[in-house]
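Incident review: delayed structure delivery

Summary: a single-chain prediction request sat in the queue longer than the usual turnaround. Root cause was a stuck worker, restarted by the on-call engineer. No data loss occurred. The affected request and its eventual output are reproduced below so the record is complete for anyone auditing the incident later.

Affected input:
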Amino acid sequence: MKEFWNERYSEPGFMYGTEPNHFLSNQLDRLTPETILFPADGEGRNSVYAARMGWEVTAFDYSEVAREKALRLAQEHGVAVEYSVGDMLQNPFPDRQFKALAAIFTHFHDDQKPALLALYDRWIAPGGLLIMEVFSKRQIHYQEINPQSGGPRDVKMLFSLHQLEEAFSHYAFEVIRETETELREGLHHVGKSSVIQIVARKPLSF
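Output delivered after worker restart:
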């Protein structure tokens, strides 16, 4: 997996563009900046946008190449992003929590999802916010029509609404929907896609 992403991010330019994900930016624009974590952040388009909006940003990815690009993008905008590299499932932040977590197109195999989503929950502080946009399992059919629409080619790497409802059943959902959207994100997220969008608040106690 690490080799795949290093190879992809070694291509010229930014694979998913330099503008933030539209759903994410709409959510951040209405919030008061605090601390936020971006797992699987890639080339930094989303974390850098958050930093530009005044958030205290921590980011993480498999790829050293992605980190280099993200830090260059942050420097171009005159902002700071704390960006680490490693295996997310090894829990790189065992003693930290954040007031928000933005999981934008983070995809893992069904076998790994329970551990991954439990880590997301652990990293979100009580009262904190989960912001998520991921490809749904229906995206497989959109890829057949348009391979550039995005997402893994293995349906077990995609998400169902049930998986996310179950993992965050103790949260208060502000948004939870599976919907069709039109993506215009660089070279690899282009066209109609099936996504799941979530905004959910972690309870103060559980």
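Verification: Residues 64-76 form the longest helix (13 residues).
Action items: add queue-age alerting; document worker restart procedure.
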